[in-house]
Specification:
- The chain has 118 residues and is an all-alpha fold.
- It has one domain.
- Helices cover 51% and strands 0% of the residues.
- α1 packs parallel to α5 and α2 packs across α5.
- The longest helix has 20 residues.
Length: 118
């Protein structure tokens, strides 16, 4: 009845986001798609997508859930306010937050749970 939906952004969707924006975005998606799902750079991409898609507020009866993760992710990337450079900067900030988290033995750095895009 419903398209495939998961609780958080599913990493296998990543390559299908490639052609939604410009060349810089496509290069990032190509690089991330080649990584293992557990690579810190891939995890940072997943976390960024969770934030863009607002996955933590998705639930089984919601419209977003009924559309499925791929459609939601595509819409989130296309509707991201800003240029490719802004989206890549958002990825880089998320990546740095994740690396800081990993370096702190699992203690989240200040602002880690702030899900604002800016």
């Amino acid at each position: 009845m419903y398209p495939k939906a998961e609780i958080l952004f599913p990493f296998p969707v990543t390559p299908r986001l490639r052609n939604l924006r410009g060349e810089k975005w496509a290069e990032l998606v190509d690089r991330i798609s080649q990584l293992s799902e557990t690579d810190p750079d891939a995890l940072a991409f997943i976390l960024m997508m969770i934030r863009i898609n607002n996955c933590l507020k998705c639930y089984s009866g919601s419209y977003k859930f009924m559309r499925g993760c791929e459609a939601c992710s595509m819409q989130g990337v296309m509707q991201f306010k800003g240029e490719d450079e802004d989206l890549i900067a958002f990825y880089e900030r998320t990546r740095q937050e994740l690396l800081d988290y990993l370096e702190n033995d699992g203690s989240p750095p200040e602002g880690f749970y702030d899900f604002q895009q800016a």
